[in-house]
Specification:
The complex is a heterodimer of chains A (about 300) and B (about 290).
Chain A lengths: L10 H14 L7 H27 L6 H17 L5 H23 L4 H21 L1 H5 L5 E2 L7 H27 L2 H11 L1 H6 L4 H27 L1 E2 L1 H4 L2 H14 L5 H20 L2 H18 L9
Antiparallel strand pairs in A: 1-2
Helix pairs in contact in A: 2-7, 2-10, 2-12, 2-13, 3-4, 3-5, 3-10, 4-10, 7-10, 8-10, 12-13, 13-14
Chain B lengths: L3 H31 L6 H18 L2 H26 L10 H24 L14 E2 L2 E2 H23 L1 H11 L1 H6 L4 H15 L1 H10 L7 H15 L4 H21 L5 H15 L8
Antiparallel strand pairs in B: 1-2
Helix pairs in contact in B: 1-5, 1-8, 1-10, 1-11, 2-3, 2-4, 2-9, 2-10, 3-8, 3-9, 5-6, 5-9, 6-8, 10-11, 10-12, 11-12
The chains are: A mainly alpha (about 300), B mainly alpha (about 290).
C-alpha cells in the first residue's frame, strides 16, 4: 500500500489562488470589521495549521494545543513587561518558550497511545489555566492579566498592519507544511499515522520524528499566541487557556479534513465567517450549540472532511 | 492522637470519594463494555442537577430531590438509549471508533454546556435541603447521605451486572461482540440498555451535585476530569478498582484542601493523573 497526500485535482491550484487573493484584499479598502474577520481567519488558520503539524500528520489528536498558544502569549507578555525586550524579540522568545515546553511535553506525552494521549493533553488545558491563574503573580508581580503597550498606529492602519502580520504567519506555516508534505520527514510522520509499530520495525525513528513535530507545532502556536496578544494587547488566562479554543481548532481541522495543509485552511475560511454571522445575528451560545452539533455530524458522516484525502 | 482537622479531612475524603465513585462507575462500564469514551457523561449529570435546581424553585428542595429522582431516572435511561441508538452506535462504522467516540462526545458536551448556558445563565446555583445543617461527626449529613445513595447505586449496578440475565448479556457482548451475536444476543440492543443504565446511574449524583458544590454550566469539565482520574487509576471496567480509586481521589482532594490554598487542589490531581498516565497507563489495579 502506498501512502500519498491526495486531494481533488483542482484543489491545490485553487487554494494557491485564494492565498494570493488574500494579499490583495486590502486594496479593495474593506471596512475595519471585514479586516478583523479576515484577521480571525488567519489567526484560526495559523493555530489550526500548527496543530495539524503534529496531530494531522501523525494522527495523535491533541486537545491541549491551546496551551502553547497561551504559553507563548504569557512568555512574550512577561518579557515585554518585566525585561523590556523589543517586540520582535519578544515574539520569537514566546515561540521559543512554547517550543521548549512543547518538546518536553511532546517527548513525555507522546509515549501514550491514541485516546490516552488525547486525555493527557486535554488535562494540560486545565493545568495551564490553574497555573497561570494562580502562579503568574509570583513571576510577574502583576495581577494574572497583563496589559501590553498598544502599537502607535491609528486604528485602520493598526488592523492593516496586523492583517499582513497574521497573513505572513499563516503563509509561513503553510510553507512549512508544504515542505513537510514533500519531504522524507513528512512521510515518516504519515507512516506513524498508518501503523506506528510497523514504522518502528522498518527503522523509522518515530520518537524523534514525533518530538520534532511536537516542537514545530508548539513553536508556531506560541508565535500565533504572542502576535494575538500584541493585537488585542491584553493577556488573561480565561482567553488563552480556554477549552472552547481547543474545540474550535479540532473542529476546523475535522471540517476541512486532516492530512494536508489545505484542510485546515478550508476549515478556517468556512468557520470564521459562519461563527461571526451566527454570533452577530443570534448569540455566542447558539453558535457553539450549532458547532457542537455539526461537529458530531462531521465525525459521523464526513470523517474525511471537505477536502481531506479519500 | 491525630489533629481534628486531619480526621475531618479523612472522613470528608472518604465520603467525597464514594460520591465520585457513582459518577465514575457508569463511565467506566461504558468504556470497558463497548469501548466508548463518553466525555459528555458529566454533562448529562449536570442536566439532572439543573432540573433539580429548577424543581426546587417550584417545590421545596427536599421534595424536588425526591420527585426528580422518580422522574429523571427513567428519563435519563431513555435519553441514554436514544443517544446510543442514534449517535454512538453510528461510530462503530469507523475502525478507530474508540478515539472518534471521545471526539464526538466532546461535541455533545459542548452542545449540552451551551444549552444550559442559554437556559440558566452563568450564575452559580445550588440548593439547600432541610437536612443540610445536621452534622454526622465532622461531616455534614448531606454528604453522608450522598455517599450512602452512591453505595446503593453501586450495589445495584453490581447486582445488575452479575445476577441478572441482561447483565449476563452485557458481559457476553463485552467479552466478544461477534460471538455474543452468534448466540442470539442483540448486541446493539444490549449495549443501548447498558448505556441507558450508565446515565440512569448518574441521576442520584446529579441530584446531590448542587448540594455538595455550586453548579454552573461548564463545571462538568472538572467532574469529567475527576472521572478520568478515577477510571484510569482504578482500571477501566473494574467496580472494586473504581471505588478504591474514587476514595483515593477523594482523600487527595480533601487532604490537599486542608493543607493548601484551594486553587491548587485540582493541580495536584491533574499532575497525579499525568504522572500516572506516563508511568502506568494501565492503572494501579487489575481490571
Amino acid at each position: 500500500m502506498t501512502i500519498k497526500f491526495r486531494v481533488g485535482r483542482f484543489i491545490i491550484p485553487w487554494s494557491v489562488v485564494v492565498l494570493v487573493a488574500f494579499l490583495f484584499i486590502p486594496l479593495l479598502k474593506p471596512s475595519q470589521y471585514v479586516l478583523h474577520v479576515f484577521l480571525m481567519i488567519f489567526l484560526y488558520g495559523s493555530l489550526t495549521l500548527s496543530w495539524h503539524l503534529l496531530s494531522g500528520y501523525t494522527g495523535y489528536l491533541s486537545f491541549g494545543h491551546v496551551v502553547f498558544f497561551g504559553i507563548g502569549a504569557y512568555a512574550s507578555g512577561i518579557s515585554i513587561e518585566l525585561h523590556k525586550l523589543p517586540i520582535p524579540v519578544a515574539v520569537l522568545a514566546g515561540g521559543a518558550v512554547a517550543a521548549l515546553v512543547g518538546a518536553v511535553l511532546g517527548y513525555s506525552c507522546l509515549r501514550l497511545r491514541g485516546h490516552y494521549f488525547a486525555i493527557a493533553t486535554l488535562m494540560l488545558v486545565f493545568i495551564g489555566y490553574v497555573i497561570f491563574a494562580n502562579i503568574s503573580d509570583f513571576i510577574t508581580k502583576l495581577r494574572m492579566e497583563i496589559w501590553l503597550p498598544v502599537l502607535p498606529y491609528e486604528i485602520y492602519a493598526y488592523r492593516l498592519f496586523f492583517y499582513y502580520v497574521f497573513l505572513g504567519l499563516m503563509l509561513a506555516i503553510v510553507g512549512v507544511s508544504f515542505l513537510i508534505e514533500r519531504s522524507k520527514f513528512g512521510y515518516g510522520l504519515l507512516s506513524i499515522k498508518e501503523d506506528e509499530d510497523i514504522a518502528t520495525t522498518m527503522g523509522v525513528n518515530t520518537t524523534k520524528l514525533k518530538t520534532i513535530a511536537a516542537t514545530l507545532s508548539a513553536f508556531f502556536a506560541g508565535v500565533t499566541g504572542t502576535i494575538y496578544a500584541q493585537y488585542i494587547s491584553y493577556i488573561d488566562p480565561v482567553i488563552y487557556f480556554d477549552v472552547m479554543m481547543t474545540f474550535i481548532v479540532v473542529y476546523i481541522s475535522f471540517l476541512g479534513g486532516l492530512g494536508t495543509w489545505i484542510g485546515p485552511l478550508t476549515g478556517a475560511i468556512l468557520f470564521v465567517p459562519l461563527n461571526e454571522a451566527l454570533t452577530l445575528y443570534f448569540s455566542p451560545e447558539v453558535a457553539r450549540i450549532i458547532f457542537g452539533a455539526s461537529f458530531v455530524a462531521i465525525v459521523l458522516f464526513l470523517p474525511k472532511g471537505i477536502v481531506g484525502k479519500r | 492522637m491525630l489533629p481534628p482537622v486531619f480526621v475531618g479531612a479523612l472522613c470528608e475524603g472518604l465520603v467525597l470519594g464514594l460520591f465520585y465513585a457513582s459518577i465514575a462507575l457508569g463511565f467506566s462500564l461504558v468504556w470497558a463494555a463497548m469501548r466508548i469514551i463518553n466525555v459528555s457523561h458529566a454533562a448529562f449529570v449536570l442536566i439532572v442537577s439543573y432540573v433539580v435546581v429548577s424543581g426546587a424553585r417550584i417545590f421545596s428542595a427536599d421534595s424536588s430531590m425526591l420527585i426528580m429522582l422518580m422522574i429523571m431516572t427513567p428519563v435519563m435511561f431513555g435519553v441514554g438509549v436514544i443517544y446510543y441508538r442514534y449517535v454512538i452506535s453510528q461510530l462503530y462504522r469507523s475502525p478507530n471508533y474508540e478515539g472518534l467516540s471521545l471526539v464526538a462526545c466532546f461535541g455533545v458536551a459542548i452542545v449540552i454546556q451551551n444549552v444550559l448556558l442559554l437556559a440558566f445563565g452563568t450564575a452559580y446555583q445550588g440548593i439547600v435541603p432541610s437536612f443540610a445543617s445536621i452534622n454526622v461527626g465532622p461531616v455534614s449529613f448531606s454528604k453522608v447521605s450522598a455517599a450512602i445513595v452512591s453505595i446503593i447505586v453501586t450495589v445495584l449496578a453490581y447486582f445488575l451486572l452479575r445476577r441478572t440475565y441482561i447483565g449476563k448479556a452485557v458481559r457476553a457482548a463485552w467479552q466478544d461482540p461477534m460471538a455474543a451475536s452468534l448466540h442470539g444476543i442483540n448486541v446493539v440492543r444490549v449495549r443501548s440498555i447498558m448505556f441507558g443504565v450508565s446515565l440512569a446511574m448518574a441521576v442520584p449524583c446529579g441530584i446531590y451535585l448542587p448540594i455538595i458544590q455550586v453548579i454552573y454550566p461548564h463545571v462538568h469539565w472538572s467532574y469529567i476530569i475527576y472521572v478520568f482520574i478515577i477510571v484510569i487509576v482504578g482500571g477501566v471496567g473494574s467496580i472494586p478498582g473504581t471505588i478504591t480509586a474514587a476514595i483515593i481521589v477523594g482523600l487527595i482532594e480533601s487532604l490537599s484542601n486542608a493543607l493548601l490554598p484551594s486553587a491548587y487542589v485540582p493541580l495536584i490531581l491533574y499532575v497525579f493523573l499525568i504522572a500516572l498516565l506516563l508511568g502506568k497507563p494501565s492503572g494501579l489495579f487489575k481490571a
